[in-house]
Amino acid sequence: MVLNELGAKISRALAAVNDASVIDEAVLDACLKEICTALLQADVNVRLVSSLRNNVKQRANADKGAGINKRKVIEKAVVDELCGMLDSGLDDKKQELKKGKPNVVMFVGLQGSGKTTTCTKYAHFYKKKGFKPCMVCADTFRAGAFDQLKQNATKAQIPYYGSYTETDPAVVSKQGVDRFKEDKRDLIIVDTSGRHKQEEALFEEMRQVAAAVQPDLVIFVMDGSIGQAAHDQAKAFKDSVQVGSVIMTKMDGHAKGGGALSAVAATKSPIIFIGTGEHMDEFEKFEAKAFVGRLLGRGDWRGFVDKIQDVIPEDDAKEELMDSIQKGNFTMRILKEQLSNIQKMGPVSSMMAMIPGMSNSPLFGQGNEKQSQARIKKFMTMMDSMTDKELDSNNPKLLMEPSRMERIARGAGRSRMDVWELLEEYKRLRQLIVGNKGAGGLMKHMPKNTKGNMNPHNMQMNIAQMSRMLPPAVLKQMGGAGALQGLLKQMDGMK
Length: 495
Ligand SMILES: Nc1nc2c(ncn2[C@@H]2O[C@H](COP(=O)(O)OP(=O)(O)OP(=O)(O)O)[C@@H](O)[C@H]2O)c(=O)[nH]1
Hints:
The chain is built from 23 helices and eight strands. The protein is α/β, with parallel strands linked by helices. The protein folds into three domains: 4-86, Up-down Bundle (Four Helix Bundle (Hemerythrin (Met), subunit A)), CATH 1.20.120; 92-290, P-loop containing nucleotide triphosphate hydrolases (Rossmann fold), CATH 3.40.50; 301-492, Orthogonal Bundle (434 Repressor (Amino-terminal Domain)), CATH 1.10.260. It has an eight-stranded mixed β-sheet with strand order 3-2-4-1-5-6-7-8, with helices on both faces. Strand 5 (217-223), helix 9 (230-240) and strand 6 form a beta-alpha-beta unit. The structure holds guanosine-5'-triphosphate.
């Protein structure tokens, strides 16, 4: 999860308001001071921070209520202001690719911003969505650029085009685009060259390539670690070519990422994705509201369902599985299959950050990505040592037999304590999903015939029942029963 620290600080400041017995001016000021300091540390522009502070104060003071109501007003005002800060205000739907026609997308940016890596991530993302992407190397400036693109494209199994001899980027890009149009490729990505700094030669070259390939969309790739300096860079590119959207890279572990995001939004350029690591899957769709939700540890169901749909095809097997779980079957084998799907979805920690409360889970949430992966791997190894009877049993007690635990531990080269930890997590998830003996649990509230999707629409969950089912710490992390209700509404809106 990007910007972990910033999110944790803001959440802490809001939690202090929740814990205060009376919310007076001093409590509000202390909360805002903490939030503003955190934003300034993330390099958010001081003017934006000051406007957040004034607006939240104004809204809080305009509310004459007290107690719970006032807390809600403050929290909502902070969330709204953060969303406003990160939202360019433009409709980025226009930037979406259209199926059934060749979409030519040109990538621009400074050298080293992560352009080539991002082109590959973008291609990989749309390949999973059923597009036929390909990549054209228009970088004739940097020796080795074509080799790098070739290497990335080969790894992602994406066709590519480039030349070792042609020196005119406009010519080589036009040749590549024409070739791939003939091949009926529907996503043609043109990777242009960069320079160390903004200079006229770069802008002129970008204009020539754009004139040659007539892109449907120009994406500006920018390094998020430069903080609020991103404002001037985004503006300079926007003024030179018709930049349609922005992708911000290197949002992993960079304290200044928040500043960069807000600075770009201020130039009215929609950010469509963020890069969160060097690997292909470390790439997230960016949407201000969902991002703020994740930042504050409140999850993002839309992103979660999107990820699930990426790896689990909509087929009858899935329909059968949903039916079976709905009948109260949640076996160790099902858990094993789901863990294996999670492994395919990319970084576990970013996946789990989308589920409210999961950032607290002993299985996924604690520690870093490496530890989460290691925990899943450890669990999978122990499941590999189980017999078919154990994997398919619907009775957790069977697995608690000491001789079985001993055998599984020995087979997997783990301790009995490890097996016990797995069984406890299995029982906890089982209880959460199917409830006791199939009575209750999340699945009970899923509508029948989900046709492959979770389809949270029409899901009528009993909030009080769910609140009781969740461990108190998890419920608290989610923001209490009120937040749970908000979450269900959010799920309901995801038709
Ligand atoms: N940590 C991190 N590293 C990234 C990310 N995106 C790209 N990188 C790294 O940034 C470095 C530069 O990336 P490139 O894709 O070569 O950059 P480029 O903009 O194409 O560079 P030129 O081809 O020279 O213009 C590489 O080491 C990438 O692995 C990201 O989201 N996070």
